[in-house]
């Protein structure tokens, strides 16, 4: 749309399509050329804030015709000038429909492997408990893995690599608890993995460094346990807090977790909320 010339045949064809709603990347409503074309269309625009640092233009969103959705209270506060609407992000990939929940055995962690996501804390928490943990995801930072090679190379850790489709869902369901971590200074804008995990029926044990995060927004006392650590604590103390959360999360019922997860992270409900502006 940003490349369409005003008054051109392409613009007329776009207007004649009579779209009701455009769901776009969060950066587009702040691009003047894109907005110029959109202004000539009689439709709404909705976007989900997937970056905690992107700076929008002052008039990008009015909360009605142009709507910005944010996952957590933390993100709502960061983007309060743009009239954000609270809404969880829902992702459902190809062939990722979940079978009936079952109680798994080992712990599981999923995400990109780097310092921002801090899976070494999950590996240490598992070690404290004498448990095996499967760490799933691509290695984004080799130096980070080398810095924690004693943990990632330990016998209780399985570095699985990246999984998708039925293999990813099967791995999530095989876990007794999904372990979530991130670095002290990192802000999670909206993690798909919460919805994927809870829809699969696996309870969450999360380590956070402040209140109002995505982990708190995604879970409740029947689906997960969120441990809030003091950022001044060292990794060992934080890992022990996480280990306690894992023990508590293992007491949660997988079938209940799945029922709540599939209701809260329902794709049809999510799309209707974004299409109508009602959440």
Structural overview:
With 279 residues, the chain is an alpha/beta fold. It contains 12 helices and 10 strands. It has helices at residues 9-16, 32-39, 73-78, 119-129, 142-147, 149-152, 165-173, 192-200, 214-218, 235-249, 254-264, 267-276, and strands spanning 21-24, 44-48, 66-70, 85-86, 106-110, 133-136, 157-161, 175-180, 204-208, 224-228. It has a 6-stranded parallel beta sheet, sandwiched between helices. It has a 4-stranded parallel beta sheet with strand order 1-2-3-4. Helix 4 packs across helix 10. The longest helix is centred in the last third of the chain and has 15 residues, at 235-249. The radius of gyration is 21 Å and the shape is elongated. The mean pLDDT is 94.
Strand residue content:
15-25%
Q: Sheet bearing the most strands, described?
A: 6 strands, parallel
Poorly predicted sequence stretches spanning 5 or more consecutive residues: none
How many beta strands in the DSSP annotation?
Answer: 10
Radius of gyration: 21 Å
What's the order of the H and E elements?
HEHEEHEEHEHHEHEHEHEHHH
User: Helical element count?
Assistant: 12
How does the overall form come out from the CA principal axes? elongated
* Structure classification: alpha/beta
Helix content: 25-40%
Mean pLDDT: 94
* First-to-last CA distance: 28 Å
Question: Helices and strands in order, then pairings?
Answer:
Layout: H1 9-16, E1 21-24, H2 32-39, E2 44-48, E3 66-70, H3 73-78, E4 85-86, E5 106-110, H4 119-129, E6 133-136, H5 142-147, H6 149-152, E7 157-161, H7 165-173, E8 175-180, H8 192-200, E9 204-208, H9 214-218, E10 224-228, H10 235-249, H11 254-264, H12 267-276
Parallel strand pairs: 1-2, 2-3, 3-4, 5-6, 5-8, 6-7, 8-9, 9-10
Helix pairs in contact: 4-10, 8-11
């Amino acid at each position: 749309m940003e490349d369409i010339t005003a008054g051109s045949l392409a613009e007329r064809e776009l207007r004649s399509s009579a779209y009701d709603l455009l769901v776009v990347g969060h950066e587009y409503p702040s691009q003047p050329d894109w907005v110029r074309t959109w202004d000539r269309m009689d439709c709404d625009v909705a976007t989900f804030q997937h970056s905690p640092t992107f700076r929008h233009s002052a008039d990008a969103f009015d909360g009605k015709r142009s709507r910005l959705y944010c996952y957590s209270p933390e993100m709502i506060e960061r983007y309060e000038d743009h009239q954000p609407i609270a809404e969880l992000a829902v992702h459902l990939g190809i062939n990722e429909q979940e079978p009936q929940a079952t109680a798994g055995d080992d712990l599981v962690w999923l995400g990109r492997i780097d310092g921002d996501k801090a899976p070494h804390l999950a590996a240490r928490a598992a070690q404290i408990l004498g448990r095996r943990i499967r760490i799933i995801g691509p290695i984004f930072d080799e130096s980070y893995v080398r810095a924690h090679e004693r943990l990632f190379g330990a016998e209780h850790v399985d570095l699985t690599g990246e999984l998708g489709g039925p293999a990813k869902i099967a791995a999530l369901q095989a876990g007794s608890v999904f372990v979530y971590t991130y670095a002290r200074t990192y802000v999670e804008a909206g993690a798909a993995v919460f919805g994927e995990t809870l829809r699969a029926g696996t309870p969450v044990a999360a380590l956070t460094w402040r209140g109002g995060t995505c982990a708190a927004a995604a879970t409740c006392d029947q689906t997960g346990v969120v441990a809030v650590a003091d950022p001044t604590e060292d990794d060992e103390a934080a890992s022990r807090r996480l280990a306690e959360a894992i023990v508590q999360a293992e007491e949660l019922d997988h079938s209940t977790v799945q029922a709540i997860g599939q209701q809260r992270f329902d794709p049809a409900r999510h799309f209707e909320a974004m299409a109508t502006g009602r959440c």
